Amino acid sequence: MTKNHITCPKCQTQISIGDAIGEELRKEYEQKLISSLEKTRAEVDAKIRQELERKSKLQLEALAAMLAIKEKELLQAQQNELEMRKQRAEVEAKEKRLELELLRKLDEERKALEESVAKRITEDYHLKIAEKDKQLTEIARQLEESKRRAEQSNSRIKGDVFEEDLRAFLKKKFDGDEIEAVDKGKKGADVLHTIFYRGAKIASLLWEAKNTVTWQNAWIEKLKEDQRANKTEYAILVSKVLPSGASGNFFIREGVFITDDLEIAYTLAYTLKMHFIQLHEMRLTLSTNDENLKQLFDYLSGTSFKQRIEVIVERLLKLRENIARERAAMEKLWAQREGDYQKILLNTAGLYGEIKSISNDKLPEIAALELDPSSGAAHEI
Q1: Which of 273, 301, 329 is the last residue of a domain?
Q2: Max Cα separation, the chain?
Q3: What CA–CA distance (Å, rounded) separates 180 from 164?
Q4: Over its length of 381 residues, how does the chain's per-residue pLDDT go in tens digits?
Q5: DSSP 3-state assignment of 235?
């Protein structure tokens, strides 16, 4: 080892003393430089950190201020929203109250209008029905009058011919009796048949001839009136048409003999004539000493007693018919009133149900309009 060199204790390398001192100085300088740099860097970092902290603090303060403003604005907005919701709720509640009041008023007005319209419609309907009925009645009357005139003209011709045939037939069959035609327009049917026996008048028959296509029950009543007016024992109606329900060619209705066959009519008249002859002979055989008995027999076998009994029986039968007719009319009226009652009850219950539904079941209960759970029907009122 020379004087200008030293050995590195670590690596045993020979190092020049000049170089070693220079290196050491360099390292020392570098160390100082590094320390100075680090100090400068630390100072710079501290300044930067301070600046950053200052700026961050300012930013945080600004953000805090902004946040406070935002929170204040949010709070105000929430308060505004709450106020708006409150106002909206009040408006909606007011609208609902107004709507409910309006609905109630509309229901009242609708009910009044319906009643008014129903009343007006009913009045108009009844008026129109009455007018139509009047028109139809007038048309029907005119048609019936025209038909009656036409039928009258036709029936008069046919009736006259049939009446002539009947009179000729009776004259041929009963040549010993008196067969008279009743004058037109005079009460007394068509033919008055007076029965004679051994020159004495013993009885009389009243004949009516009808040659039409339709039957009329009024013929019987008229013929009976004519019979009473002429005081004949019996009345016989010979008609080409018989009433519906008639069985056979011969029957008796209200004391009037009715047939559509001239031969049957002859047999009937001949039988009646034989009956009158027998009564006449019995009357002749009574002793003149039994005058009261003879008078009683004459009365009981005479036309007057027979007609009085017939009138009494007819009035009783008509009284029974009137009672039956009145009973049927009352039952019909009761049924109609029951129907009106049911309609009123159902309409009232329906109206109550609609109003109750609109008010969300807030109406008070009306027991009479509630359904009976056992029958499903409304209680009787």
Answers
A1: 301
A2: 224
A3: 11
A4: 555 666 666 676 666 656 656 777 778 778 888 888 888 888 888 888 888 888 888 888 888 888 888 888 888 888 888 888 888 888 888 888 888 888 888 788 878 877 887 787 778 767 877 776 787 677 677 767 766 665 555 555 455 678 888 899 999 999 999 999 887 655 557 899 999 999 999 999 999 999 888 899 999 999 999 998 888 889 999 998 998 877 778 888 888 989 988 888 898 889 888 888 888 887 777 655 566 556 655 655 666 656 655 555 456 546 666 777 888 888 888 888 888 778 777 777 777 677 767 666 655 666 665 655 444 444 444
A5: strand
Clarify whether residues 269 and 160 are in a common domain.
yes
Instruction: Specify if 318 maps to a domain.
Output: yes
Q: How many CA atoms lie within 13 A of 40 on its CB side?
A: 6
Which long-range CB contacts under 8 A does 85-88 form with residues at least 24 apart? none
Secondary structure letter of residue 367 according to DSSP: G
With beta carbons less than 8 A apart as the criterion, state whether 286 and 297 touch. yes
pTM, to two decimals: 0.40
Same domain? 172 vs 219: yes
